[in-house]
Design goal:
It is built from seven helices and seven strands. It is of the alpha+beta class and 190 residues long. The strands form two sheets. It has a five-stranded antiparallel β-sheet, covered by helices on one side. A two-stranded antiparallel ribbon has the order 1-2. It is elongated, with a radius of gyration of 24 Å.
């Protein structure tokens, strides 16, 4: 999700202690999607050794951007850096949290080749555009090819996880899935 790093940093600042700067720098060094154990490990290593110059520069550039946008305020107290969210920053943090809750995960499925041709036809309404875009990305990831924007075909077995996810997203009523078993036969499978 775009803005996820900003979301994590702003949440960190919201719940900050005097060690906010070290915690955020540890997050940046640990990398995207790091576990809490990895973050704690990086934080302990940073306390033992000097932070790499490039990582420090990335951190300060991001802090500067957040400050310039009016999302955080910073104050220096001797050697420690104190950060806090502004009211605008709190509103933006809530916006990012809502965005994350509504975020659809990337469709990644393992698929198998098949001897039968599968045809997927869908008509997801415009007001559910995100689900439609997710569906197209999932079909592409599975290995189907577009015949038209809403008609996809290929010799692939549809993964059960894909069908379960489509059901959880309440889009199965917009889907028609057919399997061609013999030349000249068309069987509806969903």
């Amino acid at each position: 999700m775009k803005g996820e790093i900003t979301l994590k940093i702003m949440e960190c600042i919201k719940n900050a202690s005097d060690e906010t700067a070290d915690a955020v720098a540890a997050f940046l060094a640990a990398g995207y999607g790091a576990s809490s154990n990895k973050l704690n490990y990086k934080l302990s290593k940073m306390r033992e050794a000097r932070i790499d110059y490039d990582e420090r520069q990335k951190f300060y550039k991001l802090i500067h951007k957040l400050e310039k946008d009016g999302l955080i305020e910073k104050s220096d107290r001797g050697k420690s850096l104190r950060l806090r969210l502004t009211s605008k920053g709190s509103e933006f943090l809530e916006f990012l949290r809502r965005k994350k809750r509504n975020y659809l995960s990337k469709p990644a499925y393992d698929s198998e080749k098949s001897d039968q041709m599968i045809i997927v036809i869908f008509d997801v309404p415009e007001d559910e555009r995100r689900k439609r875009d997710w569906l197209r990305a999932a079909l592409k990831n599975i290995g189907l090819k577009p015949v038209q924007k809403s008609v996809w075909a290929g010799k692939i077995k549809l993964p059960r996880e894909f069908l379960n996810d489509a059901e959880k997203m309440h889009i199965t009523s917009y889907l028609e899935i057919f399997e061609i078993r013999k030349a000249g036969s068309l069987i509806k499978i969903l």
